[in-house]
Amino acid sequence: MNTLTDRYLAATLRSVPTQRRDEIATELRASIEDMIEGHTDDGADPAAAERAVLTELGNPDVLAARYADRRLQLIGPTYYLVWLRLLKLLLSFIPALVGTIVAIVEAVEGKGFGAIGPGVVVALHVTVHIAFWLTLTFVIIERSQPTMDLPEWTVDQLPDAPVRRGIPLADTIASVIMLLLTIAYLPLQHYHSWVDGTDGENIPLLDPALWSFWLPALIVVLIASVIFELVKYRIGRWTWQLFGLKALLSLAFGLPLVWLALTDRLLNPALAERLGWLAEADNRDALGLAIALGTVAVVIWDLIDTARKTRQQTTA
Amino acid sequence: MVSEDVLRTHLQELRRGTVVVASLVALRRPDYGYALLQRLTDHGFPVDANTLYPLLRRLEDQGLLTSEWNTEESRPRKFYRTSDEGESMLSRLLADLAAVQTSLTGLIQGVDR
């Protein structure tokens, strides 16, 4: 005999604990037959009645879960938030850390840029492993009896309310990128300025003699500015101390530039041989003055703008 | 206009606990699954078969119902009856239900519309 009812019972009882299976089977079969009888008494066709009754009882797996008092969820509300927090915490640094270590090891072994690939692959593997094993652990905890005692939530766990950021992330990123590009440009123009000498060799825009001191000094100031931007973002708003530091950095970069421009030591003298216009001293002085004035204008405008922001954010 | 889905969800929430109370009351007179389902439905407690049958077993496991097999009729049927424990639990539940009704009445009267 293999009626729909038999199949339904078999499907339901499959996942019901063994020791009560026979009893549930007998009772459920009787109940189903009672229900079918109820339908046929109203004049329904027996086959149609059987279908209707089994449809009404619904998915046998759901019914079995109700008999067994089993949870129909991977991780329930009791543990979900703990699971989520741990997952975020672990994924926030472990894959990146392991990937970086692998990439460094590979790079040390002489793979150069080829070391990035294995680093990324390992980071992805670590991500999948963390997610899988953590979830599996919680699935087991969810199904274990008795329920685990989680520490009660207290008000002391409340995180600090986010301070209204006076320093938007986008601004910080833009500033850092500008600074890095400037740092990169200084050596780049030395090797590739797009101005060629008569023999086709490259003519740097800035005087190569400056590499003995001034250009390295300016690069140090620029690197300090990058660090300053990051610290500023971490603090989250302008303060007068930050304003002071910013002013110092601006002057440390601006003053040498102005002085070099005014004393005609900024540009490469070799340029004058290629660009006739620069050969005349008057023109060179005018260009130096323009660079100096431009620098002064940018620094002053920047400091005024910063002072305005600082006043707003310290009085608010 | 409240959507039908929202209404259905709230009605379900409201009715959920009453199935246990209704079953414990109804089973002061012993009965088997399907007959109980019919009686509850006739008395305005419509309940799904796939909810009621597992519920009866759970209440039995909790000691609130006792059961007995009746093999005299055409098919073997398991008759459930509210136990003494079930009876004392029931009186607590009924008292609480009455308290909810009282509180609600008081609240309705105290609020101007």
Describe the protein in words:
The complex is a heterodimer of chains A (316) and B (113). Helix content of chain A is 71%, strand content 0%. With 316 residues, chain A is mainly alpha-helical. Chain B has 113 residues and is an alpha+beta fold. Chain B has a single domain (4-105), classed as Winged helix-like DNA-binding domain superfamily/Winged helix DNA-binding domain (Arc Repressor Mutant, subunit A, Orthogonal Bundle). Chain A binds chain B through residues 23-24, 26-31, 33-35, 38, 56-58, 62-63, 66-67, 69, and chain B through 32-35, 38, 48-51, 53-55, 57-58, 75-78.
Largest sheet of chain A: none
> Which secondary-structure class do the elements of chain A indicate?
mainly alpha
Q: What integer is the average pLDDT of chain B?
A: 90
H/E element sequence of chain B: HEHHEEH
The proportion of residues in beta strands of chain B is 5-15%
CATH superfamily of chain B: Winged helix-like DNA-binding domain superfamily/Winged helix DNA-binding domain
**CATH uppermost class of chain B:** Mainly Alpha
Helix content of chain A: over 70%
Transmembrane segments (chain A): 80-104, 116-141, 169-188, 208-231, 243-262, 286-304
Keywords (chain A): Membrane, Transmembrane, Transmembrane helix
Protein name (chain B): Helix-turn-helix transcriptional regulator
Domain Transcription regulator PadR N-terminal (chain B): 27-91
Which terms summarize this structure?
A: mainly alpha, B: 113 residues, alpha+beta, Arc Repressor Mutant, subunit A, three-stranded antiparallel beta sheet, 3 strands, WH_DNA-bd_sf (chain B), WH-like_DNA-bd_sf (chain B), Tscrpt_reg_PadR_N (chain B)
